[in-house]
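Before the break, one more example. Copy the sequence into your notebook; we will annotate it together after we see the structure.
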Amino acid sequence: MRVKIEQNENGEYYFLIPDELQENLSWNEGDHMEWIDNGDGSLTLKKLSQLEALKIKAFEEPDVKAEYGQLKDDSEFDL
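Here is what the structure looks like once it is written out:
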């Protein structure tokens, strides 16, 4: 599917996804998405699972990111 890329008054780019397509894909406003470069000049837009979205959100928190950086494959920790 091809969509028109538009630009708002702040210079940010966006595109609209038709409602029917959103319903067919079970995409909702606020869902976390991932852009995948197909290597041929096109992009794929993929909805992230709840776990994938949670990982990304966790890494936005400096404390979580720092703690993760300290872990090694042989580290032991309690869950």
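The chain is about 35% helix and 20% strand. The helical segments are 19-25, 50-59, 62-70. Try to locate both features in your own notes.
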